[in-house]
Amino acid sequence: MKKPFELSANVALGFEEAIRNISVPSRYSLSVFTLEINGKPKLAFQAKRHAEAERLGRDWVYSHRDQISSKGRYGTELPPLIGVRMALAAERAVFEADSNHEFYDGVKIVRLIEAAEPESRGG
């Protein structure tokens, strides 16, 4: 007996469509991630998987490149160093407090740097 995807003209595409139509609840819950730019925590946001958080972080940086670009020693524009990691407890608290948020690609993004800047200037 042939499976429905085996009846399609392209078995691989039929299989892919059959897999897409299966509704299996995800066993992953949302985690809070932090986007670091040039070694400083800038944003906190939620994602299910680290790969999804990496993609979202890189997309955000690319779309906001003009706001975060830096100049090198001779005036050349340097690409930002990007890192995505699990949020620390303090970063999760800021995210959950819901201060200064925006939405990017349907995901709530909370800026972290504004909250930390006044403390670093005072010393």
Structure, explained:
With 123 residues, the protein is of the alpha+beta class. The protein has one domain (31-121). It is 38% helix and 27% strand. The protein contains five helices and seven strands, in the order αββααβββαββα. The protein has helices at residues 11-21, 50-63, 65-68, 89-97, 113-121; strands at residues 31-37, 40-47, 70-71, 77-78, 82-86, 101-104, 107-111. A five-stranded antiparallel beta sheet has the order 5-1-2-7-6, with helices on both faces. A hairpin with a 2-residue loop joins strand 1 and strand 2 (40-47). It is extended and about 60 Å long. Residues 115-123 have low confidence and may be disordered.
Kindly list the characteristics that best describe this protein.
123 residues; alpha+beta; five-stranded antiparallel β-sheet; two-stranded antiparallel ribbon; 5 helices; 38% helix; disordered C terminus
Average pLDDT over all residues: 78
Which oligomerization state do the chains in this entry correspond to? single chain
Radius of gyration: 20 Å
Could you tell me how far the N terminus lies from the C terminus, measured between alpha carbons in angstroms?
75 Å
Q: Which ranges are low-confidence, i.e. pLDDT below 50, for 5 or more consecutive residues?
A: 115-123
Shape annotation = extended
How many separate helices? Answer: 5
| Overall structural domain count | 1
Number of strands: 7
Strand and helix order: HEEHHEEEHEEH
The main sheet orders its strands as 5-1-2-7-6
In helices, the fraction of residues equals 25-40%
Estimate what percentage of residues fall within beta strands. 25-35%
| Class inferred from helices and paired strands | alpha+beta
Biggest sheet statistics? 5 strands, antiparallel
